[in-house]
C-alpha cells in the first residue's frame, strides 16, 4: 500500500535540545539520510528558497542524472583571499538578489554538453514549500538560458527524496513574496 503526502506536511519550529538530528527527525516522522528512512516524494520540478539570503522562490529542476547541483549566478566576485564569493542571482520572478557567502571549494564540473570546467561551489540551506530544510552544495553557473534557475543533482537529493518524474511541484507553492 502506497502512502501519499500532502504538500506542506513538514512544518516545524527549530529547537536545539542537544539530541542528534537524525533521532529528532525520526521522532517527528521527517526524512533523514538513513537508508531505511522514509523519503519525501518530489516532482521533476520544485520550488526552492534560500532562507539564509531571503532569496527565491527558484524554479528547480530535479536531475538524478546530474551529480552536482547549481544555481544561476551573474557577476561573480571572488574575495582577494578567495575565502568568500559574491554574486547576483535571479528568482522565478526575475528579481535580482545579491548573495555573499563562504567559498566551499572549486570543483571540475562536466556540463550536459560534456565540457568540464572549474566551478566555485558554496554550501547553503535550501527550503521547500511546507518548511522542509536541508543543506546542499551548489555550484555557481550562468543558467540564464535554462528554463530552471536551479538544478538539484544526486548529492543534494540523496537520502531525503524520491523523484516522481511524471509530476511537478508536489511540495506545493510559495506565495508571491516567497513565504509559505
Can you lay out the helices and strands and say which pair or pack?
Elements: H1 21-28, E1 40-43, E2 45-50, E3 55-62, E4 70-72, E5 74-78, E6 84-90, E7 96-102, E8 105-110, E9 116-127, E10 133-141, E11 150-152, H2 154-157, E12 161-164
Parallel strand pairs: 1-12, 3-11, 4-10
Antiparallel strand pairs: 2-3, 4-11, 5-6, 6-7, 8-9, 9-10
Pfam families: Zn_protease
Domain Retropepsin-like aspartic endopeptidase: 41-168
Protein name: 30S ribosomal protein S6 modification protein
Structural features, described:
This protein has helices spanning 21-28, 154-157; strands spanning 40-43, 45-50, 55-62, 70-72, 74-78, 84-90, 96-102, 105-110, 116-127, 133-141, 150-152, 161-164. With 180 residues, it is mainly beta. It has a domain at 72-175. A seven-stranded mixed beta sheet has the order 2-3-11-4-10-9-8. The protein has a three-stranded antiparallel beta sheet with strand order 5-6-7, with no helix packed on it. The chain is globular, with a radius of gyration of 16 Å. Residues 1-15 have low confidence and may be disordered.
Amino acid at each position: 500500500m502506497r502512502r501519499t503526502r500532502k504538500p506542506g506536511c513538514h512544518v516545524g519550529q527549530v529547537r536545539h535540545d542537544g539530541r542528534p538530528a537524525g533521532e529528532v527527525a525520526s521522532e517527528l516522522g521527517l526524512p533523514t539520510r538513513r537508508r531505511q528512512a522514509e523519503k519525501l516524494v518530489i516532482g521533476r520540478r520544485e520550488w526552492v528558497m534560500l532562507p539564509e539570503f531571503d532569496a527565491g522562490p527558484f524554479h528547480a529542476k530535479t536531475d538524478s542524472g546530474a551529480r552536482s547541483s547549481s544555481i544561476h549566478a551573474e557577476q561573480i566576485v571572488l574575495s582577494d583571499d578567495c575565502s568568500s564569493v559574491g554574486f547576483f542571482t535571479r528568482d522565478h520572478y526575475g528579481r535580482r538578489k545579491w548573495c555573499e557567502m563562504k567559498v566551499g571549494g572549486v570543483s571540475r564540473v562536466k556540463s550536459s554538453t560534456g565540457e568540464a570546467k572549474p566551478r566555485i561551489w558554496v554550501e547553503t540551506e535550501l527550503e521547500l514549500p511546507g518548511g522542509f530544510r536541508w543543506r546542499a552544495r551548489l555550484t555557481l553557473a550562468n543558467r540564464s538560458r535554462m528554463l530552471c534557475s536551479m538544478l538539484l543533482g544526486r548529492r543534494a537529493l540523496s537520502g531525503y527524496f524520491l523523484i516522481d518524474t511524471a509530476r511537478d511541484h508536489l511540495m506545493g507553492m510559495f506565495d508571491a513574496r516567497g513565504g509559505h
